[in-house]
């Protein structure tokens, strides 16, 4: 299962103090006083925030729908990967049980909000939060994320904000119907298999649309053409040297559209022994995976955009006297906890915090646009000193994903500020090597390496369907293109392969090749018939 | 742009219930094992609370294709450089792991060795009882929370149609009709008959006919205005829930703790005591538990000592019965307490002690007890090599107690070698209770 990809703004471990109780007497402009909220204050906050977001920052958003939920409902929502409407499956129950246990022990705070990339854009806010937190969440989710969802090219290309809620509704009832008709167990096994392949169920490049029917029709037309043009004389013409007729193998691969990196798609369309409803189940899982894939590729940008937006808006509200000093301090308390980045040797370090990196980069872009140094002008001639930070940011938010964004926008200034350095770890050596640091010689390499960490190839291993032994035992052959000599974790790989074999209906082999085509390891798994419906 | 606020707080709770049930079904085997572990480590009185359960991730793992944590070349960009220059080397920590990668625990918990979560009381009881193979009736009874009796409590002006009290309603209706002088139907009929009579002979008494017609018209109007049954007449039977008569009970747990009792036997005994405790808490508001252990002498101990320490010595069952008798006399007068005895032993007893034991039970304890159960625990038949398992010789204590059994005595004895054999000991107890309930249900 994909880790939860819906956005979560984490609550700091300790609860923020509620805002000041006693308002200064002269403030008639304040949107609210105290910590409690009601619908009117939320509406007032929303309108004030919207005014800043649309008119000052120039954001462009889907209509907003804000839903108030309880903490239990929040737990529930993010047990099912942030989608409250998702179909039923035991794994969501498992996540709920774990999250609930951790929440009860106080080991984990709850997310303040969950936002769904849909139109209208639905943001969930929790009832027990103070009004300042609700305002923060509205600025963060209902405007920051919302703008990003609507404008980023990946979301535009791969997700359908208008249709997603209806589709999830359909998926839920479809799977419930399947459970009734074919039994919970069989549906569960099918879903298990599909979930295991979720990360391999994503199209990465737009594809031409072809289905089996039109393929068959074209095949027939070709055949007809050949029949009409048939002339036995052609057989006697000697073939040109070096131009061989395509072999059977190549023809078969072309016919099956191989190699194919979307394993779920391949199985859905071409696994010979699946029932139609099982194909539909694979399709549903694949659609859900595809829907979430832009979020996985834009974690830093998405959070950076939302965090920058809420910071600008809350600060502006404070500047214009719409929120009190106490409320602003409460906001800053949460904000700093969210964008905190511990150093690598800090016990709290757990990788680069996407909120911290994203927010820092957005602020850096603002700085370069409005107040650049000589160095910035040399590195970013395109927009340095342009004076319009929001234009530069909106352009970045619309046209990049994490990898390209970092490659394009990470500045030497920020690398120095974060003191980024590149560590090289070769398992054959007894030491780590510092390959580049934040200095003149290292900027470009550090930036490249950091960008590479957010690339497709770092997110998921590159696994493709290479071939099918149609003439022999119908064995499906998968190829893992090994990067840097890192093989797959064997136990997990075997379990997933078992799922593939069950779906395919025949044996499956995974070959792990390095860049030179040398085979490093082979795993073979025989099919079991657990998925075959009577 | 308009914004919509939706309040979802009042949506039905427990939306994740279906997922949770699927999860528990999926992980049943592991959870069952964990529940068994938990129930052997918890106190008898805690058997009913929910449980913090940890199960191995094995059966509920969600595998994905992911890169191995070992081998190969990895590049990391990390923040917070303080001293390193390009080309520096850093010794790897022993053990191999390290770098930035190790911290990236997968979000689905794949990196954890154990999966921890909380079972509710209901779920725990379900699983706990499943292993004891209780019949459904008994399970239902044990799971039910405080039982209530519904008792008639006067009348109310609202209720469901099935509870409509016809007599009351009609009485109210009648008195209202009388008070408001609603014309009765036979009076109306008489009036109509008289009018018909007069009309049949026109010219006889036209004044009277006019008067009668006017009267009839007024009466019809009046009957319309004053309904036959008005909502204010309607009365329903009112019921009120009163808790079932609650009393107090004391449960004596007697166990032989001499060296011959193995851990398996003690576990069986514990489950036996737990089940009795559960049963008693259903019937009595307050249940006290007394633990008496014995070798050749008996003493009252706390639960920990009872289950977890072994003593050396001979075996004289009568000492324990003596102790029980003493405690009853001192602290639990028969008139105030329902007394239940539960004894577990491997059946050893000093031969000369037999007569005394039987006499104590027969003459002193059984008359005071509601119920006395004796289980003779044996080794696990599954763990025994074939051929040994069926070998069963009557033990000293068994022979002794056999003299006591009779149809009228509240005494049961049973040999138990596996958890699933425990329930039959209680069959009579549950059956009796069940019969009583069916009697109550059919007045």
TrEMBL record, chain A:
Residues 461-514 form the SpoVR-like C-terminal domain. Residues 1-27 are annotated as: Disordered. It comes from the Bacteria. Signal peptide: none annotated. Residues 7-27 have a biased composition (Basic and acidic residues). Residues 36-457 form the SpoVR protein-like N-terminal domain. InterPro entries: Spore_V_R, SpoVR-like_C, SpoVR_N, Ycgb-like. PANTHER family: STAGE V SPORULATION PROTEIN R (PTHR30029:SF2). This is Spore cortex formation protein SpoVR/YcgB (Stage V sporulation). It comes from Nitrospirillum iridis.
UniProtKB/TrEMBL annotation, chain B:
Residues 95-109 have a biased composition (Gly residues). Residues 77-112 are annotated as: Disordered. NCBIfam families: PRK05325.1-2, PRK05325.1-3. HAMAP family: UPF0229. Belongs to the UPF0229 family. This is UPF0229 protein FHS74_005338. It comes from Nitrospirillum iridis.
